[in-house]
């Protein structure tokens, strides 16, 4: 069940950390607290199902912690940023964040975001392997195999490809893809999708197959199967 998940809280503000812990434990989550970036990296191998990660951390900042997480793990990450801090949503998403919240925030909203992120992630975990011409999208192993070779890509690129390929020939707007893959609507940040599609094409565009990642001009994108 969702509310039995292990959550890693990474925030040097102990009051905020305690507040988050209190609300999540009331929902039944098991929370572990650490207070700097080094402690976060030291603990990420403990099978957490979600990481709540502050950006402004001592020793190692949240951006660098997120980069380290994404080198090995697809664990969903919700980023926290204080109001007034510079936070580039697109950068966070491109580095592999799944959601973000600005402090101060309503703990009930954070709890709802946690549930939504875990629900999306677990639906991906339960996914079956997709097979196309010379292409395997394996969400169990979280990998892409093209013409017998493993193609390395960050989790969000893989999730985007999986979503489109799960619905072949269906056209999605950038806003729909943002909502489906990142879980909330962005106004004016549709370039996030464009960047991910561009990177996907660089990795999987190939001749002699009956599928392709297509741009539908003025609308969005689709995974076309002939």
Automatic annotation (TrEMBL):
<dbReference type="GO" id="GO:0005829">
    <property type="term" value="C:cytosol"/>
</dbReference>
<feature type="domain" description="Response regulatory">
    <location>
        <begin position="6"/>
        <end position="118"/>
    </location>
</feature>
<keyword id="KW-0902">Two-component regulatory system</keyword>
<feature type="modified residue" description="4-aspartylphosphate">
    <location>
        <position position="54"/>
    </location>
</feature>
<dbReference type="GO" id="GO:0032993">
    <property type="term" value="C:protein-DNA complex"/>
</dbReference>
<dbReference type="GO" id="GO:0006355">
    <property type="term" value="P:regulation of DNA-templated transcription"/>
</dbReference>
<keyword id="KW-0805">Transcription regulation</keyword>
<protein>
    <recommendedName>
        <fullName>Stage 0 sporulation protein A homolog</fullName>
    </recommendedName>
</protein>
<dbReference type="InterPro" id="IPR011006">
    <property type="entry name" value="CheY-like_superfamily"/>
</dbReference>
<dbReference type="InterPro" id="IPR016032">
    <property type="entry name" value="Sig_transdc_resp-reg_C-effctor"/>
</dbReference>
<dbReference type="GO" id="GO:0000976">
    <property type="term" value="F:transcription cis-regulatory region binding"/>
</dbReference>
<dbReference type="Pfam" id="PF00072">
    <property type="entry name" value="Response_reg"/>
</dbReference>
<dbReference type="Pfam" id="PF00486">
    <property type="entry name" value="Trans_reg_C"/>
</dbReference>
<feature type="DNA-binding region" description="OmpR/PhoB-type">
    <location>
        <begin position="127"/>
        <end position="225"/>
    </location>
</feature>
<dbReference type="GO" id="GO:0000156">
    <property type="term" value="F:phosphorelay response regulator activity"/>
</dbReference>
<dbReference type="InterPro" id="IPR001789">
    <property type="entry name" value="Sig_transdc_resp-reg_receiver"/>
</dbReference>
<dbReference type="InterPro" id="IPR039420">
    <property type="entry name" value="WalR-like"/>
</dbReference>
<keyword id="KW-0597">Phosphoprotein</keyword>
<dbReference type="InterPro" id="IPR001867">
    <property type="entry name" value="OmpR/PhoB-type_DNA-bd"/>
</dbReference>
<comment type="function">
    <text>May play the central regulatory role in sporulation. It may be an element of the effector pathway responsible for the activation of sporulation genes in response to nutritional stress. Spo0A may act in concert with spo0H (a sigma factor) to control the expression of some genes that are critical to the sporulation process.</text>
</comment>
<feature type="domain" description="OmpR/PhoB-type">
    <location>
        <begin position="127"/>
        <end position="225"/>
    </location>
</feature>
<keyword id="KW-0804">Transcription</keyword>
<keyword id="KW-0238">DNA-binding</keyword>
<dbReference type="InterPro" id="IPR036388">
    <property type="entry name" value="WH-like_DNA-bd_sf"/>
</dbReference>
């Amino acid at each position: 069940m969702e509310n039995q998940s292990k959550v890693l809280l990474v925030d040097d503000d102990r009051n905020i950390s305690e507040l988050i812990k209190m609300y999540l434990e009331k929902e039944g989550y098991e929370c572990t607290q650490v207070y700097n970036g080094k402690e976060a990296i030291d603990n990420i191998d403990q099978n957490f199902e979600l990481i709540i990660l502050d950006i402004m951390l001592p020793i190692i900042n949240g951006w660098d912690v997120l980069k380290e997480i994404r080198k090995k793990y697809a664990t969903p990450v919700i980023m926290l940023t204080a109001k007034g801090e510079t936070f580039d949503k697109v950068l966070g998403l491109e580095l592999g964040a799944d959601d973000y919240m600005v402090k101060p925030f309503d703990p009930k909203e954070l709890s709802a975001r946690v549930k939504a992120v875990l629900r999306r992630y677990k639906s991906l975990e339960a996914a079956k392997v997709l097979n196309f011409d010379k292409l395997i999208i394996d969400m169990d192993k979280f990998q892409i195999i093209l013409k017998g070779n493993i193609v390395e890509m960050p989790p969000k690129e893989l999730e985007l490809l999986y979503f489109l390929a799960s619905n072949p020939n269906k056209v999605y707007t950038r806003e729909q893809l943002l909502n489906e893959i990142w879980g909330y609507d962005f106004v004016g940040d549709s370039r996030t999708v464009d960047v991910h599609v561009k990177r996907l094409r660089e990795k999987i565009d190939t001749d002699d197959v009956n599928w392709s990642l297509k741009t539908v001009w003025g609308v969005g994108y689709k995974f076309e199967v002939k």
